[in-house]
């Protein structure tokens, strides 16, 4: 089966995807949301790639170097053995700042014999819109385009440049390297220097992983997911991307293709909650600052998403010259959803502010700003909570009173009241509590359907929706409350398909989905665990883990029938839900061991 068998490398400035056989098929430089320099992922013929092919009958294995974002592809043909170690440099400099240039290093490690390899170096700048010309210069290979827009890319290598560009057979007798740079180098690279970049980057990741606690169960899965989330973080502003790609379809051949290289307030704030639980406080702090910077005016409404450099306008357009992933058109850049109204984001934001105040209560420099934002959020929710919206799934059709949005309006008030107590602002509490109660009663009255014994997708509907499972994790309802237990059972019966969940089953703007939204299955597993069906939850979790790709990575969706990964990749949302589930199972195991030792 043709799956998303890619590994991601990156340095919190940009990222690249490398296939199971060592072909670099997706990369945007200098930043995540820049135009692509390699985009074979979106067009096999036109997109451009950088392949390293072993000549002969080689066995190829790929894995990450333990606890790092360095991807190792191992080629072996009897005595002839070599490895390619792919990474984007990232490490701390003497001045306390991070070295994270827009560069990819492909370090070729000689192991034994006389391996032969052939290179296909075919960059296509600016989304392959115009022609890219490649020239061999004295110190490097330069590629440039100037039809649509002027852009350049540089390749430095220890190998014979003519042999590389001419795809000639190269014999490997010692370590070598390829360095792809967005900018021309001032100091000439060497194999020794590239080896040093490799070691420094290795140390950076090992140190970073070491900050997190070790878990009794699923520790490797938690670590790989945490590294993946870190790779989707944009260092300069603290933004967190939904995924590293654009236009990987939810269903092959259909039009549900979106650009995910942006920061959704909802996804990103959930990421921060999990990341701070793993001990990475700096990421949490910087993301909080990113949000504060986005809210300059008290009256300014929050968008559901922003560009990674805080852009507010994300105009969507189609790249019609690209064939799309497996022929799935259109390829879109930009995302029109930025204009949508989703009332849940205020609750999500308020939840993050509250979490951070609990964790950093001793050293919050921006307490006054956070109190201003809190008051602003309550004012906006008070004005707008009764209005319909597009909901968590961004329906492009008519607005409705979505249950999830209403629950999150309640969360906004609940957390704001807690923040008011922390800051000793007692005068607000009484007024806010009345509103919080009003929203809660409204949800119990209008979102509960006694015919199907469950909370439903929107007021007055009969449709089930996986997002209502989050009612419990946000503290709206207790896990053992009969209404929640019967909602979980109804969702299991109505939305589960061979252990994978539909987000919902009612037809949306594009018809009935044929793939499962990965995070929904994790939410369901968590809910089973919480209502006491722990063995069943664990069984589901282990099965779901088996659907990841060969490196333990998940995209946004999984096809119900074939179990292939679909949608943008790797998906932050999927990995943070994986971590949440895994931590629950691990904590349970620890508690049981403590009880056994006491018993």
TrEMBL record:
Keyword Oxidoreductase attached: no
Domain GH15-like as annotated: residue spans: 219-582
A GO molecular-function annotation: hydrolase activity, hydrolyzing O-glycosyl compounds
InterPro entries per record: 6-hairpin_glycosidase_sf, 6hp_glycosidase-like_sf, GH15-like, Trehalase-like_N
Record flagged with keyword Metal-binding: no
Domain Trehalase-like N-terminal: start-end pairs: 8-132
Keywords for the protein's UniProt record, in alphabetical order: Hydrolase
GO BP: any one term: carbohydrate metabolic process
PANTHER family in UniProt: GLUCAN 1,4-ALPHA-GLUCOSIDASE, TREHALASE
Identification of the protein by name: Glycoside hydrolase family 15 protein
The organism of origin for this protein: Flagellimonas hadalis
């Amino acid at each position: 089966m043709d799956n998303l068998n890619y590994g991601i490398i990156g340095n919190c400035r940009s990222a690249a995807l490398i296939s199971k056989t060592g072909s670099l098929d997706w990369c945007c430089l200098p930043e995540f949301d820049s135009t692509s320099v390699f985009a074979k992922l979106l067009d096999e013929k036109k997109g451009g790639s950088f392949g390293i092919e072993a000549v002969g009958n080689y066995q190829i294995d790929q894995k990450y170097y333990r606890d790092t974002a360095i991807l190792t592809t191992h080629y072996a043909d009897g005595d002839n053995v070599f490895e390619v170690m792919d990474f984007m440099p990232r490490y701390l400099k003497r001045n306390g700042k991070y070295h994270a240039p827009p560069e990819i290093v492909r370090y070729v490690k000689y192991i034994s014999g006389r391996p032969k390899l052939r290179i296909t170096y075919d960059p296509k700048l600016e989304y392959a819109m115009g022609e890219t010309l490649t020239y061999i210069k004295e110190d490097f290979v330069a590629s440039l385009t100037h039809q649509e827009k002027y852009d350049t890319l540089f390749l430095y290598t220890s190998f014979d440049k003519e042999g590389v560009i001419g795809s000639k057979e190269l014999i490997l007798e010692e370590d070598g390297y390829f360095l792809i740079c967005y900018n021309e180098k001032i100091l000439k690279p060497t194999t020794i220097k590239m080896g040093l970049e490799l070691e420094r980057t290795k140390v950076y990741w090992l140190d970073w992983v070491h900050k997190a606690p070790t878990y009794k169960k699923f520790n490797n899965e938690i670590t790989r997911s945490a590294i993946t989330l870190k790779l989707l973080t944009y260092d300069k502003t603290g933004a967190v991307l939904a995924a590293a790609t654009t236009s990987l379809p939810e269903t092959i051949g259909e039009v549900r293709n979106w650009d995910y290289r942006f920061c959704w307030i909802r996804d990103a704030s959930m990421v921060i909650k999990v990341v701070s639980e793993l001990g990475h406080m700096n990421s949490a702090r910087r993301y909080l600052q990113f949000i504060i910077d986005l809210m300059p005016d008290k009256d300014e409404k929050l968008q559901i998403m922003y560009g990674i450099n805080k852009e507010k306008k994300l105009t969507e357009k189609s790249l019609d010259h690209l064939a799309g992933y497996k022929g799935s058109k259109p390829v879109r850049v930009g995302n029109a959803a930025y204009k949508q109204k989703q009332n849940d984001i205020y609750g999500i934001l308020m939840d993050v502010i509250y979490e951070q105040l609990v964790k950093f209560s001793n050293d919050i420099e921006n307490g006054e700003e956070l109190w201003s934002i809190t008051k602003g959020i309550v004012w906006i929710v008070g004005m707008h909570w009764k209005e319909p919206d597009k909901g968590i799934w961004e329906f492009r059709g008519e607005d409705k009173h979505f249950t999830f949005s209403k629950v999150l309006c309640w969360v906004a008030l609940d957390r704001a009241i807690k923040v008011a107590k922390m800051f000793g602002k007692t005068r607000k509490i009484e007024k806010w509590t009345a509103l919080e109660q009003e929203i809660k009663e409204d949800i119990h009255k209008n979102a509960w359907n006694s015919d199907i014994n469950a909370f439903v997708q929107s007021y007055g509907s009969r449709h089930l929706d996986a997002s209502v499972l989050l009612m419990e994790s946000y503290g709206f309802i207790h896990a053992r409350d009969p209404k929640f237990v019967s909602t979980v059972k109804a969702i299991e019966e109505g939305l589960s398909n061979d252990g994978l969940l539909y987000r919902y089953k009612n037809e949306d703007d594009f018809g009935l989905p044929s793939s499962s939204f990965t995070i929904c299955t994790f939410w369901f597993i968590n809910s089973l665990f919480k209502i006491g069906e722990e063995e069943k939850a664990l069984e589901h979790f282990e099965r779901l883990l088996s659907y990841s790709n060969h490196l333990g990575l998940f995209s946004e969706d999984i096809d119900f029938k074939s179990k292939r990964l679909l949608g943008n990749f790797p998906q932050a949302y999927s990995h943070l839900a994986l971590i949440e589930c895994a931590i629950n199972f691990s904590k349970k195991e620890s508690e049981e061991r403590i009880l056994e030792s006491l018993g």
